[in-house]
C-alpha cells in the first residue's frame, strides 16, 4: 500500500470531531475506495502521531472498539472516548448518536 494512501487516511481521521466516532469503512469511503477498510486498520495500527491523529475515534461497523488498540489496549480506547463524552451501550458506541460521516 502506498504511503500516499496512509496519508489520505490520516488526513480524514484528523477531521473526526472530538466526541464523535467513525468506522473503518466510512473512512475508506471518504478516502475514495470503500474496499480499503482493512488498510485503514493497518494505517491506524502504525499511526506515526497518536497525539495528532486521533485513531481512538475509529470503531468497527458495530460501534465496537479495537481489541488490538495499538496505544494502550481496548480499555484505553474506551477511556479516551468516554473522556470526550462518548457513551457506550452494552459495550458499543451507539453509531446513530455518535457517528461522523465526514460532513462537518
Could you give a short description of this structure?
The protein is mainly α and 104 residues long.
Number of strands: 2
CATH topology: Arc Repressor Mutant, subunit A
Q: Main β-sheet: number of strands, strand sense, barrel status?
A: 2 strands, parallel
- What is the residue-averaged pLDDT? 91
Element string (H = helix, E = strand) = HEHHEHH
In one word, what is the shape? globular
CATH C-level class? Mainly Alpha
Rg of Cα set: 12 Å
Adjacency order of strands in the biggest sheet:
1-2
% residues in beta strands: under 5%
Description:
This protein has 104 residues and is mainly alpha-helical. The chain has a single domain, classed as Winged helix-like DNA-binding domain superfamily/Winged helix DNA-binding domain (Arc Repressor Mutant, subunit A), CATH 1.10.10. Helix content is 42%, strand content 4%. The chain has helices spanning 3-14, 24-31, 37-45, 73-83, 95-98; strands at 22-23, 58-59. It is globular, with a radius of gyration of 12 Å. The mean pLDDT is 91.
Keywords:
about 100 residues, mainly alpha, Arc Repressor Mutant, subunit A, two-stranded parallel sheet, about 5% strand
Question: What is the topological layout?
Answer:
Elements: H1 3-14, E1 22-23, H2 24-31, H3 37-45, E2 58-59, H4 73-83, H5 95-98
Parallel strand pairs: 1-2
Helix pairs in contact: 1-2, 2-3
Amino acid at each position: 500500500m502506498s504511503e500516499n494512501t496512509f496519508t489520505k487516511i490520516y488526513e480524514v481521521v484528523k477531521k473526526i470531531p472530538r466526541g464523535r466516532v467513525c468506522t473503518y469503512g466510512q473512512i475508506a469511503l471518504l478516502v475514495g475506495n470503500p474496499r480499503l477498510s482493512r488498510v485503514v486498520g493497518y494505517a491506524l495500527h502504525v499511526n506515526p502521531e497518536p497525539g495528532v491523529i486521533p485513531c481512538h475515534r475509529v470503531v468497527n461497523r458495530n460501534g465496537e472498539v479495537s481489541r488490538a488498540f495499538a496505544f494502550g489496549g481496548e480499555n484505553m480506547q474506551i477511556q479516551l472516548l468516554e473522556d470526550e463524552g462518548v457513551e457506550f451501550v452494552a459495550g458499543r458506541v451507539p453509531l446513530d448518536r455518535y457517528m461522523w460521516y465526514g460532513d462537518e
